[in-house]
Amino acid sequence: xxxxxxxxxxxxxxxxxxxxxxxxxxxxxxxxxxxxxxxxxxxxxxxxxxxxxxxxxxxxxxxxxxxxxxxxxxxxxxxxxxxxxxxxxxxxxxxxxxxxxxxxxxxxxxxxxxxxxxxxxxxxxxxxxxxxxxxxx
Length: 137
What we know:
The chain is an all-alpha fold. 89% of the residues lie in helices and 0% in strands. It has helices at 2-26, 28-36, 46-70, 74-136. Helix 1 (2-26) packs antiparallel against helix 3 (46-70) and helix 3 packs across helix 4. The longest helix is centred in the last third of the chain and has 63 residues, at 74-136. It is flat and about 65 Å long. The two termini are 18 Å apart. The relative contact order is 0.12.
């Protein structure tokens, strides 16, 4: 069924993103040396970890967004992106102003959590409605 396919894609893509993060974290000193000539070492900790986690939210929101597209509910995607934008404005801007790069990255993650949460909720709602229609038929 589509639910199983969505869960499989979420698992595969999330695992790939986490493997990427692991490799990025293990080789971060080399990456800073190669790309930045050893500069910006103050960002090798939390900011680097937060930046490395960004693909996880992107892959999850992409899978869930495509699931909503598949069931012809782009309106729900729009609503989820509105919630994400509101989170970015309400929490992200103040975090960036107060904590700089780490705050900006935290704001991006909060925005991503809002997006993923809404997409998941809309997907589960649509999936349960489809099941109840199928059971009634």
